[in-house]
Design a protein that fits this description.
The complex is a heterodimer of chains A (263) and B (166). Chain A is built from six helices and twelve strands. With 263 residues, chain A is α+β, with helices and mostly antiparallel strands. In chain A, helix 1 runs antiparallel to helix 4 (110-128). The chains are: A alpha+beta (263), B alpha+beta (166).
């Protein structure tokens, strides 16, 4: 019997929803155990990357007490992903933000850590539960995965930043990540990494669908920061689908480059 | 005849370069869910030269970049690219060319060793459906939006969805 098991965990300062769908999902002890491990991984990531906890590896790096090269493997992996993201986005996403009067840069990977931790949890669940489909939603960033091809895809809604009780679009996704960057929930929290000033002029939100959540998250952040140039840049990315919501006017769908464009 | 063969050789070289591009794109796009084991193996697309002149393929073995196999339909030829090592593992692409245009492309070999590989392989570029959203009739599993705070979650759509399944 196909069932759905849902667990909501408060971690990393937000509610994280985990859905497992498949045979005996509500009673199978393997499902419970996998979810417990995934949740533990999220708490572990929080302990490493929290800027609120003085003893976290990230806090120690930022105080100069710990070198990145000596940091735990998770920190070095996130730093590597931050460098990749910076290169790929022409520095519109940057894990090292301007800080201080002389142009010092502070390691600020928080914008990537959430997507990384959620994708890791999703990968763990998929590996542990080959007969199930899994979904992890962390405060509006969604990762889905599954090995099966005979089950329905997940249906993911994109909320309207003007009225968060409504949806602007839906999409079917079996594997991949969906991330939204914008100013709806926390005010203007996307900054231009070059200047430290608020970015995303003229936009309310950018949602990106990509093969994994880290990519979706980075591209949504960088796309939103680009403001008026968001549509053009998002359209150059292979395999992405995006929804751009301007301050004025209707939402716009952007499709990345496709194979058919070559034919 | 000679010039024709040269044209063909040039075409193959161009295709070899193109196949490299296609390899990357196909991997990213993963139009084909390759979780099943029924995908054609590289040996199934054994090198086979169009026409009867086999020397053109063996003589051009230095590149070993692409092999070709004649197809049954008139004017259509298939080309199998070299196996490209990507960050996710080896990938091989086969394309069909009809009258000088690529009319089909598929992966004949994809990495399938770890969960991330399978994830990449099973990713299909999704289509956003804005009309269905207006009707609000779709069964939604999750909501993507700007970061939800703990306070915001209580009133959020995601909270309602979670409750419905708890």
């Amino acid at each position: 019997v196909n069932e759905r098991f849902v667990h909501v965990e408060q971690v990393m300062g937000m509610p994280v929803s985990i859905h497992v769908r498949g045979p005996q999902a509500r009673t199978d002890p393997d499902v419970r155990e996998a979810v417990v491990r995934a949740v533990q991984g999220l708490h572990d990531a929080d302990a490493i990357f929290s800027t609120w906890k003085a003893g976290s590896a990230l806090s120690r790096i930022r105080r100069g007490e710990l070198l990145l090269a000596d940091a735990p493997g998770e920190v070095r992996e996130v730093a590597r992903l931050c460098r990749e993201a910076r290169d790929r986005t022409d520095a519109w996403f940057d894990g090292w933000l301007p800080h201080g009067p002389r142009g010092e840069r502070l390691f600020e990977p928080t914008g990537l850590v959430k997507g990384w931790a959620v994708q890791r949890a999703c990968d763990l669940l998929r590996g542990a539960l080959p007969a199930h489909d899994v979904l992890v939603d962390a405060g509006g960033d969604v990762a889905v995965a599954g090995n099966r091809v005979d089950t329905p895809a997940w249906t993911i809604g994109i909320e309207d930043p003007r009225d968060r009780s409504k949806l602007l679009a839906t999409l079917e996704l079996r594997t991949g990540g969906v991330a939204t960057s914008g100013s709806a929930a926390r005010g203007a929290h996307v900054l231009d990494p070059r200047t430290g000033e608020p970015a995303g002029i003229g936009l309310l939100a950018v949602t990106v669908v990509a093969p994994d959540l880290v990519t979706a998250d980075v591209d949504a952040t960088a796309g939103f920061a680009r403001g008026a140039d968001a549509d053009r840049w998002l359209g150059t990315l292979p395999g992405r689908t995006a929804l751009v919501v301007p301050v004025a006017g209707p939402a716009r769908t952007v499709s990345g480059t496709t194979l058919s464009a070559l034919a | 005849v000679t010039s024709g063969r040269d044209d063909f050789t040039d075409m193959r070289r161009n295709l070899a370069a193109l196949l490299g591009t296609l390899t990357t794109l196909v991997l990213l796009f993963s139009y084909h869910t390759s979780l099943d084991s029924s995908a054609p193996t590289p040996s199934a697309a054994a090198p086979q030269t169009p026409g009867s002149d086999s020397s053109s393929s063996s003589g051009d073995s230095s590149g070993s970049s692409s092999s070709t196999s004649g197809s049954s339909s008139s004017g259509a030829k298939t080309y199998t690219g070299e196996v490209a090592d990507t960050r996710w593992g080896p990938v091989q692409v086969k394309i069909t060319v009809t009258n000088g245009k690529i009319t089909a492309a598929e992966t004949t070999q994809v990495p399938n060793e770890n969960p991330r590989d399978q994830e990449i392989n099973s990713y299909a570029v999704p289509v956003l459906n804005q009309e269905a959203a207006q009707a609000q009739s779709a069964q939604i599993d999750a909501v993507s939006g700007a970061t939800v705070t703990s306070d915001g979650y209580i009133q959020s759509l995601q909270s309602a969805i979670d409750k419905a399944h708890l």
